[in-house]
Amino acid sequence: MTITIYDVAREANVSMATVSRVVNGNPNVKPATRKKVLDVIKRLEYRPNEVARGLASKKTTTVGVIIPDMSNIFYAELARGIEDIATMYRYNIILSNSDQREDKELQLLETMFGKQVDGIVFMSEHVSIDLLNMMERSPVPIVLAGTIDATGHMPSVNIDYHQAAFEAVNRLLQNNHKRIAYVSGSLSSTINRAFKFTGYEKALAQAGIELDNDLVVESEATYDAGYTAFNKLKSINDAPTAYFAGNDELAIGLIHGVQDAGLNVPNDVEVISFENSKLARMVRPELTSVVLPLYDIGAVSMRLLTKYMNKEKIEEKTVILPHRICERNSVK
Amino acid sequence: MTITIYDVAREANVSMATVSRVVNGNPNVKPATRKKVLDVIKRLEYRPNEVARGLASKKTTTVGVIIPDMSNIFYAELARGIEDIATMYRYNIILSNSDQREDKELQLLETMFGKQVDGIVFMSEHVSIDLLNMMERSPVPIVLAGTIDATGHMPSVNIDYHQAAFEAVNRLLQNNHKRIAYVSGSLSSTINRAFKFTGYEKALAQAGIELDNDLVVESEATYDAGYTAFNKLKSINDAPTAYFAGNDELAIGLIHGVQDAGLNVPNDVEVISFENSKLARMVRPELTSVVLPLYDIGAVSMRLLTKYMNKEKIEEKTVILPHRICERNSVK
DNA sequence: GTGAAAGCGCTAACAA
DNA sequence: TTGTTAGCGCTTTCAC
């Protein structure tokens, strides 16, 4: 038998409204009766039913988080930032994996609406029109974390990927490389295609180097793919002497490819990464990398969401966090 | 204006009970009226309010997951297994980080009870008495995933850590090592202390080697800690020639320590790990490791939980999954 | 096969 | 300062 607010009221000889008041910290309760109620609550081990509360108040203090893959270190870090800020603001999180499948993303949004979440943080490498339509008709605020909405309609938090990629490639250019490869994750990812790739392009153009499509390889964003990419590129004519890797795993795969070919990083081949997860220090040489502040992106997204949920005034609906390059030893 | 079951009923000229029946797939509805209702639902874009449903039915189809740190690759993998099976059974997941702090764990349980979750999957390196007491008085089933309950009262899924550690150390013994170090994560972790350590102990004893406490180093379970541990042990008298690492990060730190000291793995020093995450293949040499089936532990835990939630008969309340050693190149 | 009506446990006016 | 009373949107008997 679960005990309800009504039981407490009866035991304490007050109305349920009064119990509700003390439970919700409403100041309009005489200290004496507050104490009386609190005592009964403790004695009966009363615990408010948040579902009932949610139905009555139309607020569930839970937010939905839609993530491509929580076992991916990249997204796990983002999610941790989200969760930390969520708990700071007393929200709980319903976390679901979408595996980047649009149908699942759509269905997950639907599920979260049904569960009456107070808001949603959404992550994906590509936001389709259908998704955007659904989001714009959302009953609750949604913010995009580390994900790009081409229309710019949705609140979002990111870094300037284009500029960051530009700088990364420039860092390589600085060492006089003429043949710089871009080993990217999937180019169906908006960030990879429309921002990082164009940053790469721009840096080359500015250095007067013609883009060679043979030097841009699209693959999964994994260690094996990096390894494979190097082995594919090492034997082409005029092979690249430097690599811009889409993420740390790719970079490590690349480096091991180089080393297994009897070459040295950074003396024979230089590699710059784009992520700076804790993996970056777990290779020899350690990775020089653009630092993507994943945790912060998650945290700021959630903070932004709380502002929407509280109907606070929003200064920046599209926030761009700063980035930098962390110098280590994969680039001279 | 959100539209409710009542709106649908009115538009379809039926009672809300009938709408409820079609929404819930109750067969006692004439096909014609079912169709009529379905049409109205589609036209009005009606979406059932799961909170109201939860209040009325006393089931929320959501389960709580308490995890030490979701940004830790180890737990993230476990959580992914949990989530996959949860969605397979149409549950959603409320995920919260405890950072292994008992007060947070306690409070998180309380929160989840309040949210009326239908069940809980709990992970922690140490389950205190207070926690156990609270769990035994839980209104909903709880299963422990990859975590040990000394009393054996709670349902749980694990591997035989003791035996696995025993085998790992034996693998090293097989190569005639006499000085084998155990670089563990925190020994306040029940698994590390009561199972892996004793497995190590037993293997040594059986080989007639006396336990040397200088060779067991307790640290964080991180890359840096592994690196540091090697540097601490390399210069002691009769330094270890083989290492049993508590997890992959530790193992990689150890290996880089060895290499930075100008030594070779596995020729000068051998290292065996205990985890086999994807990191295991991202070092040179690749790690020989006990494979801890994290994803499966998560998946099986969740499956077990569904059985409890459905009040199915439970065959094994304490499930032990099989393990094995994956041979790669950090051990000869 | 369908409807009426009583809750589920709480919040939030509104009165007193 | 406290109590009364409607709901919140749905499920679930129980009749018909």
UniProtKB/TrEMBL annotation, chains A, B:
Domain HTH lacI-type span(s) in chain numbering: 3-57
Organism: Paenisporosarcina antarctica
Entry function: Global transcriptional regulator of carbon catabolite repression (CCR) and carbon catabolite activation (CCA), which ensures optimal energy usage under diverse conditions.
A single GO molecular function term of this UniProt record: transcription cis-regulatory region binding
Keyword Iron-sulfur among record annotations: no
UniProt-listed Pfam families: LacI, Peripla_BP_3
Keyword S-adenosyl-L-methionine: no
Protein name per the record: Catabolite control protein A
Keywords (A to Z) from UniProt: Activator, DNA-binding, Repressor, Transcription, Transcription regulation
